[in-house]
Amino acid sequence: MTTSVASSADTTPTAAFLGTRVLDIHAMDRAAGVLLGAACGDALGVPYEFGRRLTDDQQPAMIGGGLGPYQPGEYSDDTQMHVCIAAVAAGGADLTSPAALDQIARNFQAWRMGGASDIGSQTSNVLSTAENSETGTPGQAMTAAADAYTARTRYSAGNGSLMRTGIVALAYLDDIDGMVTAATRVSSLTHSDPECVEACILWCSGIRTAVLEGTFDGVRQGVQLLSAERQIVWNARLDEAEANPPHHWPRNGYVVTALQAAWSAIIRTPVPQHAPHHGSFPAQHFQLATEAAVRAGDDTDTVAAIAGALLGARWGVSAIPLNWQQSVNGWPKMTAPDLIRLAVLTARKGYDDPDGWPSVRRVPIPAYAGEAFAVAHPEDPGLLLGNLPLTRYEGKAPVEAVVSLCRVGQDPILSGTDVEHVRVWLVDKEGANANLHFVLDQAAREIVRLRQEGKRVLLHCVAGRSRTPAVAAVYSTLLGTPPHSALTAIWRALGQRWTLFAHWQLHDAVYELAGHQPRRPRSWSLGRVVRKLW
Prior knowledge:
- This protein is mainly alpha-helical.
- The chain has helices at 25-45, 77-89, 98-114, 121-131, 138-152, 166-170, 176-188, 194-213, 218-223, 228-243, 255-268, 285-294, 300-315, 322-327, 336-347, 436-452, 467-478, 483-493, 504-513, 526-533, and strands at 329-330, 334-335, 374-377, 380-387, 401-404, 420-423, 457-461.
- The chain has two domains: 21-347, ADP-ribosylation/Crystallin J1 (ADP-ribosylglycohydrolase fold, Orthogonal Bundle), CATH 1.10.4080.10; 367-533, Protein tyrosine phosphatase superfamily (Protein-Tyrosine Phosphatase, Chain A).
- A hairpin with a 3-residue loop joins strand 1 and strand 2.
- Helix 1 (25-45) packs across helix 15 and helix 12 (285-294) runs antiparallel to helix 13 (300-315).
């Protein structure tokens, strides 16, 4: 029995993409966070589904168990079905087309027969009915089964389509009308109740605006896409959500209360202040609000998956805790890089960038990366500082873990070796990192964890001269070294060669994370910089 999902037969991207809006680096970060954000919320909620509701002082964790039972970090049917849609969307398909809907329907059936660890009663009924139908295409049969279920059943507005709607928004960042149509048709494959469709439209609007503009305004704006009568209803529902805590609705299997609980968790969770020296970062809103969604209780994984998609769209993949990214996994044998790839390709209409990312097995090494090198961290010889060419190493690995601060491709990081690989979203360009201090802190703390586990670690970026020394210096400060001393020692260890002074935000963040005023030179000349600082 197959456990794979396929893209649609007509998903080849067309030249029309060339005329659509090109996402800047911040929007790409946010797009990359949608599917992974949903999966993290799902996996975080799995252990607590339909159990005793967590109190405010209880910390949810990706410990597995639940209805599966699931492995630690494993997501459930919410993300499994999301992946079925994403596999088609990532090929650049128009999700409103019959061919794309047929392929999504086939993917749902393949999942039901060979991958479903759990399945909602409404979804199970619709898929079973469609499987036995002898009329129409797979998409038509499934939509007809959903319509029949809605017509004969009083309770047909379950949350089973809202939980998997985030990827639909990514496919229509440049087309609001197309987004509305796609949300309607993809929801209606299993959940054709008008309230399900309306909820998907609102959430897709929220995700689309979050990716493009970096705000949560799109959910309210999405209400304007409904009829005047329904606008009144949904504005009142959102008002109610904003006035009450997430656990106000003890039963959230209903699509409306699921949306309200997720929206409440997002809106009512305060965004932390930017105080890096106190370990406070606005990006932590992603984690705090996702945890609040889990604490809503009842259908915890679904509410948190719904919230996680919008939170990922707002804050980006760079805001998702690295320990969550390292843990999350699920059918069909996917981890965080796979989910990011599907989301990015969907946002790019099926196209890779000029370097072949995110699909390429190995990103090309630019000339400026230089020859492969590795030097020991001046305060910890178990941490090697290197560059991208070093990852072409073949043979017995000299390390047990690699922390990559740049894009590396889909292949294992060290050929023929089994090492833990931590991928960090960190861009080597001024102003390109919306969550810079948070990311640097996360990366350094991952190194602390790996070293405490006794693993030798390779830390690298492309050339090993900017991002690498910045994270290495933050690691030094976590060991108790003042930032200026840390930077001095790392500069010397790297042979007095780096480009960190061309990226003042990286340089300054090392000081700011340690609670120190940055010691910037007056001159921007590298030679004078070196003399003044060192």
